[in-house]
C-alpha cells in the first residue's frame, strides 16, 4: 500500500491545471460501499487518471484499484498533504460524498483557493431513485437560488425531461455494507490508520449496540406502527407529521439552528401545544436509519406530558412514510427530503432549517406558530419548475443499494462528470500506475 506522509509546504498549482491534456480525478471519502470504487473503475477504463485517499480501513476495503493513497496523518497535517497530492498527481477534479465532514470542509477551502472543481455527492434532494451531484457544495452550501421566478424562467427553456425509471434498493444490503466498512475501520485503528477520527459522534461499537437493540424490538415496532397507520386513516387528515432526521446528520447540526434532534422535538411539541387547534394531532416519525442509541420515543412522551398534549401526540417507529405524508394536513421538517415528497403530494410544508427547496411558492414562509392554523399550500407550477431544474442541473438517476441502481448511477455520474469538464481538451491518456488496494 502506498502511503503519503504529511508535508509542510507545497506550491499552488491552480495556474496550470486548465491546460493539462488529461483530467486526473482525486476521490476522498464516499458513502460506505462500492460506489466510488465503481466510478473510479469506469474513469480508469476511459483513460483518466484516478487516485483515492483512504483515511481508514473502511475506505481502504472499498477501493481495489491502483492509485490508493493511505493518509495516516492528523487533521492539522491534512491541508499540506492535500496540496502535495494535488501538485504531484496534477489533480484536475476532486470527488467526495458529503461536504460537511471536517476533512472535506478543509478540502473544499483548498480547492476553492486553487480553482479546482469539487464534485459533491449526497443522497438525493428528490427521493427515491435520485442522487445529488453538485459542483462546490450541497444542501445548505448549495448555490441553487431561492427565487421562484428563476425556476419558472429556467424550466421553460429546458428540453423535455426524459423518462425516469425507478430502481430497486435493499436496506439489508445497506446495513451489510455499513457493517463491513465499520469492521474494517475498527480493525485498522491503532494498527495502521493511527490518527483517524470519525466525523460521527458515536463510537461504532456503541452504534452497533444501538442497532442490535433496535432490531430486537423490530417486530413490536412494526405492529405498533401498523396500528397507528390504521388509526391515522380514520382522522381525515387531521394530523401534522414531523419526520425526524438523524441526530448526527450535518443537515441538522450545520444547516439549522438546532443543536440536535432533541432541541427540535422540544421546539415543535411546544409550538404545537401552544398554537395548534385542539382537534389536530401531531405524529412524530422515527427515521428508518436511526441507530437506536437515543430513546426518541421516551423523549417525545416526556416532552408531550410536560406540555400537556400527551393525548394528542403519536410516535411512529416504522411504516410507509409516503402514505403517511400524503394523507397529512401538513408536514413540519428541519430540512429533510421528505419535504419534497410532501410538496409533490400538495401537502403544506414548513422547514425549520436551511433547505434548497425552502422557496416562496413551495414551502410555508410564515412562522411555525402560524403553520398549525393557516399552512400555505405549495404552488404546483413553482414546484414543477423547481423539480425540472433540479433534475437537469444537480441530480443523477440511480441509487447505492442494488446492482441495478448502482449501474444506473455510475453511468449517469460519468455522463455528468463529462458535462462538468473543466478543460476543453479531453485526450485519453492512460494514467500512470500507483500502488494498489493491497
TrEMBL record:
InterPro entries: Capsule_polysaccharide_synth. CDD domains: beta_Kdo_transferase_KpsS. Pfam families: Capsule_synth. GO terms for biological process: polysaccharide biosynthetic process; polysaccharide transport. It comes from the Bacteria. This is Capsule polysaccharide export protein. It comes from Acidomonas methanolica NBRC 104435. The lineage of its organism: Bacteria, Pseudomonadati, Pseudomonadota, Alphaproteobacteria, Acetobacterales.
